[in-house]
Design brief:
2 copies of one chain form a homodimer. Chain A has a 9-stranded parallel sheet. In chain A, helix 4 (79-98) links the parallel strand 4 and strand 5 (104-107). By secondary structure, chain A is α/β, with parallel strands linked by helices. Chain A has a single domain (11-285), classed as TIM Barrel (Alpha-Beta Barrel). The N and C termini of chain A lie close together (11 Å). Chain A is globular, with a radius of gyration of 18 Å. The first copy, chain A, has 11 helices and 9 strands. The interface between A and B is medium-sized, with 31 and 31 residues.
């Protein structure tokens, strides 16, 4: 297993981690000051800062991407909505390419209307079928551009409103169905927060292998957890056995970044420097 | 599929549903007034009302049990704690027998100390091994008494602090390992709240079959869900496709009760009659 205790060579910061404190240009500056070599920015932040300006700033700072957040949300109440989602995913792929991202992370969507508080269907099987079709169509475009797609299985507590792919096994089944040749163009973004509980996690990580493990996100599961979305913990503050999990991922051949992604009302309420310094310290001590 | 639209023949009330409004004797009376034929009481309620008094009241009211809540919590930081858990489970089995319960529901426990807010271990694999050993030992006793054990897989969002068995597949694997002969003494309590999201749910319900399906609990998943424990929805207020799910369970051979179990600050804040009347109405219209 790689030694993370010195430096920040394999650390990436998902920019959502300090999104409430800083705009993207300031996040990039703050990462550059710490010698951090990679970030994973969100589309709305990039749009606010400007795509070309962001690409230039990253190049000047010597910072690359560990992924681009995010595509997906393939489900909709009608065919027009699903077509619009495909258009939006193509745009996300083009942006990811401009920023030289290694992959586009997919939060695939779930019951139509649920995220807006008004689900129009209870049929999660149908949502999953629409997700399958959406990824298939998007993968065609992604192959042409050369932008790998990383399906992110989300925690089952987000199955209704955010993503109806909820286990690594399910994500890998979809990868095998759509990319049997393991071309490197379709894989998974593995976030410990979503998958730590899974009794099949070790075996499915081994199944995934380096071909499918396109991103590795870290944070922690707090006890108690007070909010289903925005109460993630800093690494070390919860109960996820992070080193064991990273060991499985590296044993499967993963050599990429450990990307810190923390949605947390608490860490958003602190000065960005404190949050980022803590990310660095815990990356070194705990991940 | 059975017709639930008339009467309450297959309805059971888990007494936690109105635990904040009424003590157990009053819950039994309220159910009897509605013609409800079964309840699933909790140990603390039975203890408060008296075991023998409860058995008498149930007999006089013509009300049976659909299960007894609960055994389990097999994990602990040390061997003495785990031995104490086994003693407690034997006591629960004896109580269940006195009340003529068809099964004892097991919430198996998770990381030691986590429920008290101070987890002493991050090793969920070890917790699962201790659960396995605990169920094995308890099953020996249960066989002697003739009290079936129903493992309840809990939602993955409760994997850290309440139960480290989190999918039906995992529960059934354990049943097969401990009761390969499908003797009827070990099975599952299937609560839609915990399992609705599972992409393997239909196939695992079919695998379970009537031998393993010892209880069927209903409520609903709300959008948004504001609390990980006490924000369950009344049937019909959320996004679980209840009739489809009951269809799978009945196709697998289940002929028992549909037990309403709702942990909800909202439904606890209303008059018990209103909560119970709504349970009956939704059982008829939505389950």
């Amino acid at each position: 297993m790689r030694d993370f205790s010195q430096g920040v060579e394999h650390l990436s910061i998902n920019t959502a981690t300090v999104k409430e404190q800083l705009a993207l240009p300031a996040i990039i500056d703050a990462c550059a000051r710490r010698g951090i070599r990679a970030i994973d920015p969100w589309r709305d932040q990039v749009q606010a800062a400007g795509l070309q300006a962001t690409a230039r700033q990253l190049k000047d700072a010597g910072i690359g991407l560990s992924g681009y957040c995010r595509g997906g949300f393939f489900t909709a109440s009608d065919a027009a909505g699903r077509r619009a989602a495909l258009d939006d995913n193509r745009a996300a792929i083009d942006e990811a390419k401009t920023l030289s991202a290694p992959c586009l992370v997919l939060v695939v969507g779930a019951l139509p209307g649920a995220l807006q508080g008004s689900p129009t269907s209870k049929d999660i099987s149908l949502a999953r079928a629409h997700v399958y079709d959406g990824i298939a169509a998007t993968l065609d475009y992604a192959r042409g551009v050369g932008m790998p797609l990383a399906i992110e299985p989300l925690h089952p507590m987000q199955a209704a409103d955010r993503a109806c792919i909820n286990t690594l096994e399910q994500a890998l089944d979809m990868c095998d169905a759509l990319d049997a040749g393991r071309t490197g163009m379709l894989g998974v973004a593995l976030d410990v927060y979503h998958v730590w509980w899974d009794p099949k996690l070790a075996s499915q990580i081994a199944r995934a292998g380096a071909d499918r493990l396109l991103a590795f996100h870290v944070c922690d599961w707090l006890i108690p957890t007070r909010d289903l979305l925005n109460d993630r913990g800093m690494m070390g503050d919860g109960i996820i056995d992070l080193k064991r999990l990273r060991g499985w991922v590296e044993a499967a051949g993963y050599t990429g970044f450990a990307e810190v992604e923390i949605f947390s009302n608490r860490w958003w309420s602190l000065p960005a420097d404190e949050t980022l310094d803590t990310c660095v310290a815990r990356y070194q001590s705990t991940v």
